[in-house]
């Protein structure tokens, strides 16, 4: 099968799906198989219509994987599709993590146990509105490295990753008795380039990793199929509401022999900070789903369940001029919402699938309970300025990658000679910077607003200038990818003069660390700490409307970002991450103030008013 970029896939079953109750137990007499032949998909030699939905294990608390899979089955899906995010699994070169929430093999096994097949999208590029499209940031340490290309450095790193992934997942292919029926090669490459030799490189890496007992495929927009596909593999197409008939007509002209599938049917969309919440047309989607199913085509819904880009994992879009960072929530206006509850769209889709396939779905399972948390005060604080690590000295500001740092913040410090009235001009700010003169905020430079300068009025003969920079999310799609280094790029000038001699303070903030909190008032960039108790933990939504811009940790776990510009105003806080008694909350707020309050709501707020 195939898959693609922004949203994911929904592969559908044809009238012959009745034959396909075999999908409940792939291991039959003889060797199980899934392949494309004679213009269709064949499961164990019989026609099979894929009805799939995308959900990403890393965006769902592990304790809820099985709940979400059961909801997929109850909507009528026979397959789930997931990306694998390289940056999550190889945070440092040669250091791999497949434990806890990153145990992707266990996610695949649970899908099989729930009677679902799996379509795997191993990349190495994912997109998915995920930080840097799933690439690890350490690829950027060497400024000559070019991702998504035949650069030998990139190909060598990608090969190590895919070979290691194969040890986890190749045994779970259908030819080995597992549920993985299809594996996507790269991801919507036709929207990025037209290097078929590169695509063959990735194809053969996957085969070398052991992915030889499932059907490989490529996925692109209909018009981009010639640029991103490989002649020896099936090609699936990705498109949004209203484009089904034209999209498949284009695919038929390009690949008249089929098979025919949409690897990503975009049944929702994602949100950017400072832009309106996206709500899509469910009735149009129902009509498209009905038409696709009745043609006997396969489909993957992107997304069935979006989940949450916990911690620092949100990505961003850029057209080369405008930078648009994504919010923490990946609710996506999907049939199953961020917290695993079915929406009206879920039941509309369920009815269409049941009617068009003639298969009665499983009953809809119960959903997780929700609770509220009474308001509590952030009464203890610790100033960032009092908790800085030892700096790294350099002539010019260092990028995060140069400091072996992936996410978080960097503080850049230098001394400027004054008095001076002039423009502070930075080649490029990636991504958001607060400028301080002798500890006082002088202004903000925001990549989102295409800013790279600030007017300064410095009266002192010698002044300390601090530039506190945040990685707001590396671009995950498009031509900007190779240049997504985080930091002050291209030099810093004041009044036309290049500034040198910098202290660089690395602030990755993967966890808040041990800080000495006090009851003293703290404003500006500060950590705030509080506790609350719950007699009976349950899902809740942390109300961040009183905060400015920053990050929240719950019991040491990074929950996600907040920003007062909207549209997201709550953070999904899942039950499994809470304790039955005392729970610690730590907030880092660039615009903080002691005494602000948080509370837990029993519903999300994803459509708050937009501000600047």
Describe this protein's structure.
This protein is α+β, with helices and mostly antiparallel strands and 612 residues long. The protein has three domains: 9-357, Alpha-Beta Barrel (TIM Barrel), CATH 3.20.20; 373-382 and 515-601, Jelly Rolls; 388-507, Jelly Rolls, CATH 2.60.120. The protein contains nine helices and 34 strands. The strands form seven sheets. It has an eight-stranded parallel barrel with strand order 5-6-7-8-9-10-11-12, surrounded by four helices. It has a six-stranded antiparallel sheet with strand order 17-27-18-23-20-21, with no helix packed on it. Helix 6 (225-228) links the parallel strand 9 (215-220) and strand 10. The radius of gyration is 25 Å and the shape is globular. Mean pLDDT is 94; it is low at 1-29.
Write the layout of secondary structure elements.
Blueprint: E1 9-10, E2 34-37, E3 40-43, E4 46-47, E5 51-54, H1 65-75, E6 79-83, H2 86-89, H3 104-113, E7 117-121, H4 152-169, E8 180-184, H5 196-208, E9 215-220, H6 225-228, E10 235-239, H7 244-254, E11 261-266, H8 282-294, E12 298-302, E13 316-318, E14 323-325, H9 344-357, E15 373-377, E16 380-383, E17 392-394, E18 409-417, E19 420-430, E20 432-437, E21 440-446, E22 453-458, E23 462-470, E24 475-477, E25 487-494, E26 497-498, E27 502-507, E28 523-533, E29 540-543, E30 549-554, E31 557-563, E32 570-573, E33 582-593, E34 597-601
Parallel strand pairs: 5-6, 5-12, 6-7, 7-8, 8-9, 9-10, 10-11, 11-12, 13-24
Antiparallel strand pairs: 1-12, 2-3, 3-4, 13-14, 15-34, 16-28, 17-27, 18-23, 18-27, 19-22, 19-25, 20-21, 20-23, 25-26, 28-33, 29-32, 29-34, 30-31, 30-33
Helix pairs in contact: 4-5, 8-9
């Amino acid at each position: 099968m195939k898959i693609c970029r922004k949203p994911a896939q929904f592969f559908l079953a044809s009238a012959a799906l009745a034959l396909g109750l075999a999908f409940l137990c792939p291991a039959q007499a003889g060797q199980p198989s899934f392949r494309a032949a004679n213009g269709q998909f064949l499961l164990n030699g019989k026609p099979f219509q894929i009805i799939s939905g995308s959900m990403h294990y890393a965006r769902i608390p592990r304790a809820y994987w099985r709940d979400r899979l059961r909801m997929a089955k109850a909507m009528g899906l026979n397959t789930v599709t997931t990306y694998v995010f390289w940056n999550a699994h190889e945070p440092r070169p040669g250091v791999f993590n497949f434990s806890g929430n990153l145990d992707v093999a266990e996610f695949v096994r649970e899908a099989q146990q729930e009677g679902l097949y799996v379509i795997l999208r191993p990349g190495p590029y994912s997109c998915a509105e995920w930080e840097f499209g799933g690439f690890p940031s350490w690829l950027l340490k060497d400024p000559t490295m070019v991702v998504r290309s035949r650069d030998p450095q990139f190909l060598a790193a990608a090969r190590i990753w895919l070979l290691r992934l194969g040890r986890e997942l190749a045994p779970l292919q259908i030819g080995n008795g597992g549920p993985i029926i299809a594996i996507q090669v790269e991801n919507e490459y036709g929207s990025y380039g037209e290097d078929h030799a590169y695509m063959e490189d990735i194809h053969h890496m996957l085969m070398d990793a052991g992915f030889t007992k499932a059907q490989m495929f490529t996925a692109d927009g209909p018009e981009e199929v010639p640029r991103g596909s490989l002649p020896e593999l099936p090609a699936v197409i990705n498109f949004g509401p209203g484009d089904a008939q034209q999209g498949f007509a284009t695919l038929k002209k390009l690949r008249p022999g089929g098979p025919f599938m949409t690897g990503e049917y975009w049944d929702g969309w994602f949100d950017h900070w400072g832009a309106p919440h996206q709500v899509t047309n469910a009735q149009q989607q129902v009509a498209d789903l009905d038409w696709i199913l009745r043609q006997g085509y396969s489909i993957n819904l992107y997304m069935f369940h979006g989940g949450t880009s916990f911690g620092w994992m949100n990505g961003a879009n850029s057209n080369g001029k405008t930078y648009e960072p994504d919010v923490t929530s990946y609710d996506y206006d999907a049939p199953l919402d961020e917290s695993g509850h079915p929406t009206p769209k879920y039941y509309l889709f369920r009815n269409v699938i049941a009617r068009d396939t003639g298969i009665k779905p499983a009953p809809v399972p119960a959903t997780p309970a929700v609770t509220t948390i009474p308001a509590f005060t952030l009464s203890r604080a610790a100033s960032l300025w009092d908790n800085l690590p030892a700096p790294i000295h350099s002539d010019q500001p260092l990028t995060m990658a140069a400091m072996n740092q992936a996410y978080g913040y960097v503080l850049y410090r230098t001394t400027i000679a004054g008095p001076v009235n002039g423009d502070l001009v930075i080649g490029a700010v990636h991504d958001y910077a607060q400028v301080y003169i002798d500890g006082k905020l002088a202004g903000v430079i925001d990549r989102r607003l295409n800013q790279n300068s600030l007017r300064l009025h410095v009266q002192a003969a010698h002044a300390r200038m601090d530039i506190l920079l945040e990685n707001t999310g590396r671009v995950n799609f498009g031509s900007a990818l190779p240049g997504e280094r985080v930091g002050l790029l291209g030099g810093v000038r004041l009044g036309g003069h290049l500034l040198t001699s910098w202290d660089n303070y690395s602030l990755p903030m993967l966890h808040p660390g041990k800080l000495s909190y006090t009851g003293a008032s703290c404003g500006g960039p500060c950590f705030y700490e509080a506790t609350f108790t719950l007699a009976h933990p349950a899902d809740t939504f942390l109300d961040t409307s009183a905060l400015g811009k920053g990050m929240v940790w719950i019991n040491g776990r990074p929950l996600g970002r907040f920003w007062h510009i909207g549209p997201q105003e709550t953070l999904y806080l899942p039950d499994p991450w809470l304790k039955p008694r005392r729970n610690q909350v730590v907030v880092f707020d660039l615009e903080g103030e002691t005494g602000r309050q948080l509370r837990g709501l029993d519903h999300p707020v994803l459509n708050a008013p937009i501000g600047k």
